[in-house]
Specification:
- By secondary structure, the chain is an all-alpha fold.
- The chain has 15 helices and no strands.
- The chain has a domain at 103-223 and 262-361.
- 75% of the residues lie in helices and 0% in strands.
- Helix 1 (13-61) runs parallel beside helix 9, helix 6 runs antiparallel to helix 8 (177-201) and helix 12 (293-305) runs antiparallel to helix 13 (310-322).
- The longest helix has 49 residues, at 13-61.
């Protein structure tokens, strides 16, 4: 005979289990909420703190307010923490977002897609998919062995480094939604058009033969809870921000020098709308430079502030991020030189066209 006291109360397990699940959710979300809250508090204090720190340095070093050096110093002191903070928030959000877009899922979405719709989808996926120069070869191999057409693969290779989420968020933070949206639209247009042109030519014979001999691999998709997704976001902040910080400091340093010392008339003449050769020259200058969007955007900000034309400046930024010389050297492992040259020529033509278009309408 069972005694009533020895039996658990009816329905008691449900509330206890419910509180346990809510407690686990709270433990998962609390660090992320505190991180974002602390970020906004620090960002709100950034401008007055940087202004005060600039005055303190200038006083200690006897730098006259209003001088070229003071202007460069103020730009450097404000922009370095600003860009790093924007990057820390963006990278965290992107790290969480990318937990939903594994390379295996990306390949599965693109496999077998035809020209046209496949190029549009590949360019769009390039915005939210992790990509850097060092991952160009495995991504290229993985896409082709999974049955992704060559032209569709190139749309992804162009879009991922050039129209990535870090570039868009930093452009929005520094210049507003209008320029960020224009860059997004024109960058996607270049990626789609480049993939369509290369896909129509279909130069498969210029891919190294051993690439097609690799059997397709099926990755195992791991299901993640919110705690794991937020943990991935924090890992991205730790790894990526530390990795690109030197490029940001270098980019802001160049931007500070331009901001403080380069005459506005000179930059307006070199990269303005008047000279037909300014856009191709900007693209040629950008190709050998090795940087990412986070490092080049402070330079873009300084160039625009000195009178450079918007189309010329954005063409320069696109060439730095999408036509990286180190990436070409890496891709040489899987492509013959003629295919790399074709890739560079098609993308460069698209970027130059975008530069002229921006200069004509803005």
């Amino acid at each position: 005979m069972n005694h009533p006291a020895s039996s658990p109360p009816t329905g008691a397990a449900g509330p206890i289990a419910g509180w346990g699940s809510r407690g686990a959710a709270l433990r998962a979300w609390l660090p992320a909420v505190l991180y974002v809250g602390a970020w906004f508090a620090l960002y709100w204090m950034l401008e007055p703190a940087s202004a005060g720190f600039t005055r303190w340095i200038a006083g200690a070093a006897h730098i006259a307010p209003g001088s070229h050096l003071y202007a460069a110093l103020a730009f450097l002191v404000f922009e370095v923490p600003k860009v790093l903070m924007l990057l820390a928030l963006i990278v965290f959000a992107v790290g969480v977002l990318q937990s939903f877009f594994t390379p295996e899922k990306t390949r599965a979405l693109l496999a077998g897609r035809r020209q046209g719709a496949g190029n549009v989808l590949a360019a769009g996926l390039g915005i939210v998919t992790p990509f850097c120069s060092c991952s160009a070869v495995p991504l290229f191999i993985g896409f082709l062995t999974a049955g992704v057409p060559l032209g569709v693969t190139f749309s992804f290779l162009v879009s991922a480094p050039m129209v990535n989420e870090v570039a868009l968020a930093l452009l929005y933070g520094m210049f507003g939604w209008r320029i960020a949206l224009l860059y997004l639209g024109m960058g996607l247009l270049v990626a789609i058009a480049a993939g369509l042109v290369i896909g129509r030519m279909n130069p498969v014979h210029l891919v190294e033969p051993w690439v097609f001999e690799i059997p397709a691999s099926e990755g195992i998709e791991q299901r993640m809870d919110w705690q794991a997704r937020f943990a991935q976001g924090f890992r991205h902040v730790r790894d990526i921000v530390l990795k690109v910080a030197p490029y940001i400091v270098a980019g802001v340093g160049v931007g500070a020098w331009i901001h403080g010392y380069v005459p506005q008339d000179f930059m307006a003449h070199l990269m303005g709308k008047g000279a037909w050769w300014s856009v191709p020259l900007a693209v040629l200058i950008g190709v050998p430079m090795y940087s990412n969007a986070a490092g080049i955007i402070p330079v873009v900000q300084a160039l625009l502030g000195k009178g450079a034309a918007l189309g010329t400046t954005l063409a320069f930024m696109m060439s730095v991020t999408a036509l990286s010389a180190p990436e070409f050297l890496i891709l040489k492992k899987v492509m013959k030189p003629r295919l790399i040259a074709l890739f560079a020529a098609v993308v460069a033509a698209g970027i130059v066209s975008v530069g002229y278009m921006f200069n004509a309408i803005m």
